[in-house]
Amino acid sequence: MKYTDFYEPAAERYTRMQYRYCGKSGLRLPAMAFGLWHNFTISSSYENCRRLILGAFDLGINHFDLANNYGPVPGTSEKIFGEILKADLSEHRDELVISTKAGYDMWEGPYGTGGSKKYLIASLDQSLRRMGLDYVDIFYHHRPDPETPMEETAEALEQIVRQGKALYVGISNYSPKQTAQMEGILRDKGLHCLIHQLRFSMLDQENLPAIREAERLSIGTIAFCPLAQGLLTDKYLNGIPEDSRAAGHSRFFGKEQITEEALARVRALNDLAGQRGQSLAQMALAWNLGRNTSVILGASRSEQLQENVRALDNLDFTEEETARIEEILK
Ligand SMILES: NC(=O)c1ccc[n+]([C@@H]2O[C@H](COP(=O)([O-])OP(=O)(O)OC[C@H]3O[C@@H](n4cnc5c(N)ncnc54)[C@H](OP(=O)(O)O)[C@@H]3O)[C@@H](O)[C@H]2O)c1
Predict the structure, then answer these.
(1) CATH number of the domain encompassing residue 122
(2) Is NADP there in the keyword field (predicted)?
(3) Does any domain span residue 257?
């Protein structure tokens, strides 16, 4: 794929993707979103970032997931995204769902982290400036903050929606109990919690209870790290490639996570994926989409996105395949 100076989106972009209602809302999200947690840093190549974003859009991935602190340095991925948006996608703003978040450490001092109204309102204003936007489609509280009354966080989310700075609000990394609490507070204010974003993959099912609770409350769910940061692909089966996330480019994923025990599971899953006519990445995403509204893909190259969207060609699992997966993951 080569993008010349003038970008024209692929005409067939909406024919390949599935769009699913998010919880009880009228918003349909693509089954696959693209996340900018990695690979949008101060040392990233702008041309590669552009290929990733435009390549995603061409595949029908019209939901982009950001956060105030994505970088490094924090704020960089929003800045790069804003530049690409302005240069190539400004005419397509209404085709896009753009999400950002605040909750983790962003700036120094007491107001740059947590769940206070002071932090969330200021942070979203900064995010909008960095991206050159009037509003985001989804604003998330990035993680629960036990030091801030949940009513205050909810008040901030309410203000953000009432001021038109976000169309919808969501939560991330909340426990089932915290989810029900926040949903109740927002409901009393006449707002709906659109979505819960949580870590979930074949290798990490800790958040299954939170997914079930969200479903019970008609909140959509979107899974992050659906490929366990690359472990659920065939890339680590024969060592650690130089250009991989595990080779030291991330402080969140390293060689120590690629254990023999994990690899034994990955090998068995890879064999099963082959029998289904899929790559392991495709099978892992298909499995995840059976449990969530959507998944957020990360990628260092747009070819990975092209491979991953083909998971949609086979989302079904036979009883035997499901039993085999459960046995492998036991
Ligand atoms: N709410 C939260 O607290 C939170 C936390 C974490 C993430 N997130 C969101 O979730 C998004 C996705 O997270 P993630 O990047 O960890 O997702 P992931 O899908 O688990 O991992 C993505 C990485 O896997 C590798 N990969 C992807 N497709 C591949 C393929 N077909 N073959 C080989 N390798 C492949 C690439 O790594 P290489 O660099 O090795 O090529 C890619 O960067 C983030 O961008 C962010 O938006 C949210």
Answers:
(1) 3.20.20.100
(2) yes
(3) no
